[in-house]
Amino acid sequence: MSARTARTRLLAATTVALAALALTACDNGQGVRDEGPSSSASKPSTQPGRSSGSTSTGGAGGSTAKPAGNSGTTTGGTTGGTTGGTTNGSTGGSTGKTTGGTTGGGSTTRNTPCTGANTKTTATEVTRPLNHLLLTVTNTGSKNCDLTGYPKARFGEAQAVPPVAEETHPQAVVTLAPGESGYAGVLLSGGDGSGANGYTAKTLTISFDSGSTARAALPAKGVYVDDKLTVTYWQQSLDDALTY
Question: Helices (H) and strands (E) in the chain — how many of each?
Fold first, then answer.
């Protein structure tokens, strides 16, 4: 056998041996064929799960659901509780106050009028201011009475009563409790002699707003009056009656 033939056979035997070894490696389940499909199958099944799985989608769905729930709760609370309560409470309170004030306020309630029957009237000549007379009406009854308006004073045989000084109108009705007094001032004549048609009066009759009358005694010598004669409204205090 030649050397070349021997080498050829050796190479063929080596090739057969390598082929057998490769075939054995392919059948043991741990070769490249098993690794390839395993790696390739693992990657698709794992990656899509992270990007499009229930965690991401579920998170977004959860966020949306929670605000919707909160919104529903807040709206329901506001509409059903606060708004409803405020409307009902405020309206009810306002109605109650208005009704109570109108019914129980007493603003339209009047006491018995002061008359010649439930009062006593006196006339007093004063030194200050000059030429003034003080009229005093005292409640002699057992209940309060209202002294309204001003005294319609008729001196002597005069056909008319003197005017009232409008600036003396009181802020409120003069109410007299039993035993209390109300007052009015009378300017008898002009102190500077500017008055005309003067005369001396010895009697005085007072008419009340109620229509009743009373007599008030004057000094024995009488009082001098002229066309400056003016009276004030009935006042609660003596000082207010003599300020005009």
Answer: 5, 12
